[in-house]
Specification:
Elements: H1 7-13, H2 17-30, H3 36-42, H4 47-56, H5 66-78
Helix pairs in contact: 2-3, 3-4
Pfam families: UPF0175
InterPro entries: UPF0175 (IPR005368)
Length: 82
């Protein structure tokens, strides 16, 4: 599928076509909609370069929330490590 972004919208964003793709890829990765691999493809970047872009935008590579932490605690307790 191809998506066409009009010149008017691109110009209004103040971004180059490459920057526009990167911004969309960053957003979709940050919201969990795309994996690192797919987001780097969308951004037309190598995965390592996309990781650097994430770092520049202070976007964590991994999402670790309270539920993940609680699950880790539960598993550690079951293993007798807590």
């Amino acid at each position: 599928m191809s998506v066409i972004i009009s010149d008017e919208i691109l110009q209004a964003s103040g971004l180059t076509p490459s920057e526009f793709r990167q911004e969309i890829a960053l957003y979709l990765f940050q919201t969990g909609r795309l994996t690192l691999g797919y987001a780097s493809q969308l951004a037309d970047m190598q995965p390592n370069d996309f990781r650097q872009l994430l770092k520049q935008h202070n976007i964590p590579l991994y999402s670790y929330d309270v539920e993940d932490f609680e699950l880790d605690l539960k598993n550690l307790r079951e293993l007798g490590r807590l």
